[in-house]
Amino acid sequence: MPESSRSDAQGRSASYRIEDLDAEAELRRLEAQVRLVVPVEHRVLKEIGVRPESTFVDIGCGPGFFAERAARELLDSGARGGRVIGVDVDEKLIWLARKRAEGLNLPLEYVVGAGAEIPLADNIADITYARFLFQHLEHPLVVLAEMMRVTRPGGLVAIVDTDDGSLLMHPEPVGFRRLVDASGAAQMARGGDRRVGRKLKRYLAATGLEDTSARVHPFTTEELGVGPFLEITVGFKAGVLRPPFITADEIEETVTDLELVRETPGFFGHALGYLAWGRKPS
Q1: Which of 102, 157, 166, 222 has the largest CB neighbor count within 10 A?
Q2: pLDDT at site 242
Q3: Neighbouring C-beta atoms of residue 282, cutoff 10 Å
């Protein structure tokens, strides 16, 4: 399949390359994201049919934080024959994931490959899953078709992502709306979509999946704490922004005010996680 015009030579989306960010800070953000979001994900995944014996394919697995948790908690450490296969286009992240998995004795393996050309056989997975990947895709239906291909008939294809339309704060930090709009424009220019959450169910149906459904879950400062909430919802935005979308002074002003609101009595933030799924026709 043709690679995206806004991808690099390895097929990585220009919307997300860890070397464009502060890598250490981004790894901390990704680990925090898994720690805070995964209890909700696991609960829903069990409800929709993931079992300890499932073959679970994690597309866009990155450094493996979620895949490890899935192998340990969703699959009961492989006691019933389940396994997790993590797939990511970034060789450095796959190397890191493999290093992290050494000695864990988990039913877990990692392969290098793009979502548009998943290097797995047809009908291999009971569930194929992509978490916070689709906001970075220029051609989401191409990746969904590949996810469907590697899923067995009757198996699940599921996606979790976010949508900036649900990100609200009060009192709103100075420049916050400007930051959100600029980050959305920057990702769109790179082939991404910061409002993808609302579109996931339609994408699944358009790919030919059956029994499609979608669910939202609120994540708030009450639930997560102000610091973790800001880290997982705003940290990536500040990292990807460059002129001409916003000036360095504007970024600094907004980041400074985001720090101030941590101490503001009554500060409240709200975001939604979107989880959508469907079944491959039998």
Answers
A1: 157
A2: 66
A3: 8
Output the CA angle 84-86-89, nearest 5 degrees: 170
Those residues with Cβ within 8 angstroms of residue 136's Cβ, 6 or more apart along the chain or in another chain = 13, 15, 16, 60, 187, 191, 192
The DSSP element (H or E) to which 155 belongs, if any, is strand 151-161
Category of 85 on φ-ψ map: left (φ > 0), alpha (ψ -120 to 50) or beta: beta
- Digit-coded pLDDT (tens) for 19-36: 555 567 777 778 888 888
Domain boundaries, the chain: 19-164+191-221+267-279
* Residues 56, 82 contacting (CB under 8 angstroms): yes
What local confidence, expressed as pLDDT, does residue 183 receive?
Answer: 84
pLDDT tens digits, 117-135? 999 999 999 999 999 999 9
- Would you give the DSSP letter of residue 89? S
* The two three-digit tokens of residue 243, written as one number: 């002129």
* CATH 3.40.50.150 corresponds to the domain 19-164+191-221+267-279: yes
